[in-house]
């Protein structure tokens, strides 16, 4: 960008040089914008707890669901045991 401004300040700037430098600057800006967009998408996934590359989210979620099923089964077995005890006492 500085080179483009320097060339513009000269009386007779080389038009081709300016165009080439402007194109290079535009390409550099597009690359930076693309990389920033990728980082923003990644950080959005991480911040909202969504699964993302390198994440253990799905494994943790599966483990938590399995623990919930174990707790539910334990609760139902307790209810069944109490019902059986009541039937045997009657």
Percent of residues in helical segments?
over 70%
| Cα Rg | 32 Å
What shape does the CA trace take? rod-shaped
Mean pLDDT comes to 84
Q: First CA to last CA: what distance?
A: 92 Å
Task: Please state roughly what percent of the residues sit in beta strands, choosing from under 5%, 5-15%, 15-25%, 25-35%, 35-45% or over 45%.
Answer: under 5%
Total E-strand runs? 0
How can the largest sheet be summarized? Answer: none
Oligomeric status of the shown chains? single chain
Structural class: mainly alpha
Order of helix and strand elements from N to C terminus: HHH
Unreliable residue runs: none
Number of helices: 3
Keywords for this structure?
90 residues, mainly alpha
At a glance:
By secondary structure, the protein is mainly α. The protein has 3 helices and no strands.
Q: Can you offer a commentary on this structure?
A:
82% of the residues lie in helices and 0% in strands. The chain has 90 residues and is mostly helical. Helix 1 (2-9) runs antiparallel to helix 2 (15-47). The chain is rod-shaped, with a radius of gyration of 32 Å. The model has no long low-confidence stretch (mean pLDDT 84).
